[in-house]
Sequence to fold (882 residues):
Amino acid sequence: MKFKNLIGAGLICAIILIVPQFLHGYPMTVVNVALLFAITSYGISVMLGMGGQLSFAAVTFMGLGAYFVANTTTGRLGITIPTMLALVLTPIVFAGVAFLVGLVLLKLKGTYFTFATIALVQVAFTFFNNYSPLFGGPDGISGIPTLTFFDHSFRSSGSSNEWFYFISISVVLVAIVVERIRRSQLGRALASIRDNETAALTFGINTYLTKVIAFSIAGAFASFSGALWVMHGRFVGADMFNFLNAAQFIIMAMLGGVNSTVGIVIGALLVTGLPELFRAFQGYMQLFWGVAIIALMVFMPTGLAGIKDMIVEKIRKYKVCASRREGDADATDS
Amino acid sequence: MSFTLFGTLFINGLSMGVIYAMMAMGLILLIRAVGILNFAQGELFMFGAYISAALVLDFHLPLPIMIPAAMVCFAVVGLVFMFTIYWPLRKASYAATTIIATMGAAIVLRELAVLIWGPLPRSMPPLVVDEGRPAILHLGDVPLQWQNVLIIVIGVLLMYLIYLLFEKLYVGKMMQAACQNSYAANLLGVPTILTIAATYVIVSILVSVGGYLVAPIFMVRNTLGVLQLRAFAGVVIGGFGNIKGAIIGSLIVGLIEVFSTLHFSAYRDVTVFLTLILFLLLRPQGLFGEKIKDKA
Amino acid sequence: MQPILRLEGICKQFGGVTAAKDITFSMTPGQVHGLIGPNGAGKSTLMNIISGIYEPDWGSIYLNEQEITKIPAYTRARMGIGRTFQTPRFLQRSNIRDNLLIGTDLADQTGFLKGFFGKKGRPFDDELAELMEVAKFTFDWNDNVNSLPFGKRKLLEIVRSMLGHPKVMLVDEPAAGLNNKEIEHAMDLLNLAAQKRGIGVLLIEHSMDMIMDICSDIVVINFGQVIGMGGPKEISQNKAVIDAYLGGDDLA
Fold:
């Protein structure tokens, strides 16, 4: 087990070191964006994958994080704080905000809760798109400073290697947190809510509070990812945070496997990367995309990670059969 | 507010409400039949608008031929939708898979519309034209767009017929029963696949006719599907799972939307969806729903 | 001895149907109490009322003489009301380790972050070994819980419930779907719970053999009402009980 972890860690380090040798310019920017989207996607993994709660609110918290950074680092509201501080503050502030919002919305269950998050997305989008004093209105907010990491200012081009290192390390840290949540009491509590909420109560699980905490974690991830996104792209506009993109993020999480830590990153890379890769066929790309999603749900409802599980299961069954056969052979020998 | 303005806005709001109600009724019929929340409802609606635009603008069909032709097309769309998005997934263990599949279908329909009919919005002539411009009906002092009045008349008639079919006629009750309990239905000799297919066809026709009716008011474009969110709001306000409630809820949404444009047109979504959130929190069972009970 | 659980005048109606009417009885720690009655008599409803899933229309529930009628289900579970279900309820997509940890989480409420830091421990090894000794089967930690056959899953559910260190255990039809060997192991587990751990066990069961064998006290209900109470001997001679069973279409 220890050995496996070491290999995994080595592999991740190697990937992080090797990728910048081959990717430059625009493709690098796309990879960076995909990776920071993965952080939002991890929040969906906690809510939907672990807890079975379908929430569209991820983009809204992404937006809140992005606008928070845009306002506090440009001095639009009269105060200017360092980018690094803004980046650290964002997930803390919006974990709190998400906790309060969750306290209200999670009074509702199942589909009602989902509807409420759709309503939240619509309301927030309307404000993002129209209320200029805070959100810049339809023009958005531009001229946001790039991240200054202690004394080092990141190059403002989003394709720079330092961005890649910073974002991928953030992704790894978030992934470790998610993996730890999965095996903590919180993870088990969420799993029992997903499988049967009433039974969960009899296991001594405060289902309401558990869901609120998961919502708050998802909000923290999403706002952090929004903050990174806005420093990386140096512009924020409302279109990013509409309902269609909210659906896109759900798809992203489901595609790789909503319960798979690696699958989330793969899903984010595919959803963000493929349309760029096949720009020549842009007209057909989205269509292919929709078809692929349907096909995936039909044939592999647990996402791409399901393929891995299926293979592992096959091997295991094969081994069991083989050992049985050996056992039979032993029996006949004696 | 003058009476004329009020009258015009009221009819506008009501006609938008009827459009949302058609989508909302379709949503409820599908939820009852197969238990799936269809996130491609708005796209079916949008596709209906495109198909009718094609029949009118490209094929220049006269109305008496165009209507049956459109119905056949709508029915085919409904069937294709069912056999790709619902049938292969009917035994999915994850509730989210079917919902995601309908989201995928939404993308497919949006992109197909652009691929077939091009990226430019198309404009449809209204049903009643007066010297090349939309005809106005004067009801006393109140000027009303004919198209809005027609939306209300046709929409209400269609919904009433479907309501009769499902709630009053034996066949409809049988269909609902078959969908809800396929085991019992098979014992009775009602093939589930037929009843579900019929439900999908009816829903597709209902929603697409909505698209056809609304096309002259908005342009026909592939973002029309966003209107489905208002239908969702109507469904919840009315009481989830309740046809009467969904229709009345949708009418309320239409009226709220139109009257709030009077004061803060940019924020009309805020009024609609804040109303929804308030309803969810204060009266989650909606106007007509029953209190939800947990089951052990 | 002070009763561990006491019901007083519990009433519950669903629509027009009376599921419980003035039910009063109490349970002693360290004993297995049987709860029997024909199908639809209101046995499972009563369990749901005790564990807090349904709220009674009238009446009070006391755990250790502390009233818990208004306390939410999850708090009751933490206070020591454990239960199992007719069809076992597990985390369908999780392995056996996580499913058993759900039980130990209940005994050890250190908070959500338990298990967040440190190793994937199995702090309950000894206790589990003792229980599995009685349940008489083994498993692989990392297998999905559904890879176990139905009977083993039902046994495992009793084990999980015991890992939560309950004071009262509500056990719903443990023998249904088990073979004779497994029924014996289930009875051993319940006896262990009652005699060694001093848990008050409330047992719903249709198998009269099992009831008569391990229950020291039996409550019979029909149409939501208590129609008989007493030791196995008295119950088997109680006229009302015999009528209810023979008169009903279901002979348990």
Observations:
- Residues 282 and 288 of chain A are 10 Å apart (CA to CA).
- The first helix of chain A runs from residue 2 to 22.
- Chain A has 14 helices and four strands.
